[in-house]
Amino acid sequence: MSVSPAEDPRAADGRVPGRRGLATRTRLLDCTAEMLGTTSYRDLKVIDIAREAGTSPATFYQYFPDVESAILVLAEDMARDGSGLAAIVRESSWDGQEGFDTALRLVDAFIEFWVTHRSVLRVVEVCTQEGDQRFRQIRSRMLVETTNELAEVFRRFQAAGHHPANLEARATAGPLVSMLAHVAAHRYGFEFWGIRTADTRTSMARQLYWGVTGHEPPN
Description:
By secondary structure, the protein is an all-alpha fold. It is 72% helix and 0% strand. Helix 1 (19-36) packs across helix 2.
């Protein structure tokens, strides 16, 4: 997984790295992300990341005080990638067949997002469950923009009379986003039960389209 340097990335001592330093920092982050795919984050050691990156532990410590700090940077980068999910909602039509196609694209984007970031997401989920507020806040930021954009679409259809006036938009959009995130995270479990991803995808898109627009999905 290729990682983009965060805005104004700094070394552990506060300095802004030069071009070579940024390349080293990015390589360390890439290796951390790759190793999280096969190693529990609690078992991941600085010396192992440095060896994988072709550098030394001392170099790692120039950029990150510990492994957890590197993972937090990865999680921040991942949360910024979540803006792409919101863009699908904001920039696409939600009317008729085009709207259902938008719902399908958003479902696919959630699934792809979880595939791309699965190793970091596992850490975010575990640390969130354990009450780590840093990871909890990152997870919230990752999904809040998409929730807000869906709520805006909901309000447009509500104003046109397709939803009851007393329904709260974010209270509808939030559960829909939670559904997308949860199923994207656990779709292999559904496959283990014999439920095909293609069928799950269609079902999620139908629920999303209906929940947002108030219209029955097209056949």
